[in-house]
Design brief:
- This protein is 45% helix and 14% strand.
- It is α/β, with parallel strands linked by helices.
- The longest helix is centred in the first third of the chain and has 32 residues.
Length: 297
């Protein structure tokens, strides 16, 4: 081995560390910019807000909390953050992981202990997934706690791929053209739910979480995840992106660029009263001509 090709093995870890720091900083800037843009576009967080950040222990919620804490330090507005986890008493749930992490970064946090798992197991028919009922019970508990502490916003960690998956889930299995809105008013009008990572790509979040070495809690404790319809949709979208790179970017853009008059919902657009109207047009020669004008809006 010549001197020209010799590489000191002691420099390799340093180079790897510098590369990791570079990638981490770049990803943080990207995610911070996208979260900031979503917050601005939808007026998600205002001066004086008390934001309850819902933590599941997955990559998405860890990243959301991390980026929001970063923005909190530099934002021109003042808002508070409280991290909240719902311990649903699933068998094998490592209940010490999240509190240890949240305490280590010095964030205000609370763990709600509520055995919704037993209820879900008891009420779900054999062969069916737990996810629907589990989600409703989880949402109810989080809403109740948010009200008890006076939180003005409830932040969830859904990203742009979640929004697209939900769109197709509702179309294929629910017969509805709807997704997850970046900002939502609860049915009772008492809670505002925000999704600050609505513009963020899942791959960026996954890479960021890996570089930050968040203590991830896997979402497989209930044993039903592999058969979910959402997994089927996720695979479909990933295959589209593999065969046609950039297709998901265009698809996501369509969620933000809706033309109600080009769909068919009579509750969303007044098709019943859509008629042509007669107008008189003065020609340059001073003559009149009757023409049809289609009134769309």
């Amino acid at each position: 081995m010549t001197a020209a090709t010799f590489v000191d093995s002691r420099t390799a870890p340093a180079k790897d560390a510098r590369k990791a720091d570079f990638n981490l900083n770049r990803l943080q800037k990207t995610l911070r910019a996208e979260v900031g843009r979503a917050i601005a576009d939808y007026n998600m967080i205002q001066d004086g807000d008390f934001v309850m950040v819902c933590m599941s222990g997955g990559k998405d919620s860890y990243t959301m909390l991390d980026i929001l804490l970063n923005l909190q330090k530099h934002a021109p507005i003042d808002f508070r953050i409280k991290a909240v986890n719902l311990d649903q008493k699933q068998p094998g749930f490592p209940e010490h992981v999240l509190p240890a992490y949240l305490a280590s970064i010095g964030v205000d946090y609370h763990v709600i202990e509520q055995d919704t798992y037993s209820i879900v197991v008891d009420k779900t028919e054999p062969g069916k997934t737990f996810c629907g009922l589990c989600s409703r019970l989880r949402r109810g508990n989080l809403y109740s706690y948010a009200e008890s502490i006076g939180a003005t916003k409830i932040a969830l960690g859904h990203h742009r791929h979640d929004l697209m998956e939900t769109l197709f889930l509702n179309m294929f299995f629910g017969g509805k053209l709807k997704s997850m809105p970046p900002k939502l008013l609860s049915d009772d009008g008492r809670h505002v739910v925000i999704r600050p990572m609505a513009y963020c790509k899942e791959n960026d979040i996954a890479r960021y979480a890996a570089l930050k070495q968040f203590p991830i809690i896997p979402c497989n404790l209930c044993g039903t995840q592999e058969n979910m319809q959402r997994k089927e949709i996720k695979n479909m979208l990933n295959e589209w992106e593999r065969k046609h790179p950039g297709r998901l970017d265009v698809l996501f853009k369509s969620l933000l660029n809706v033309a109600p008059s080009q769909l068919g919902d009579t509750q969303l657009f007044d098709f019943r009263n859509l008629e042509s109207r007669r107008v008189n047009k003065v020609l340059e020669q001073g003559q009149f001509q009757r023409i049809d004008v289609l009134e769309l809006e």
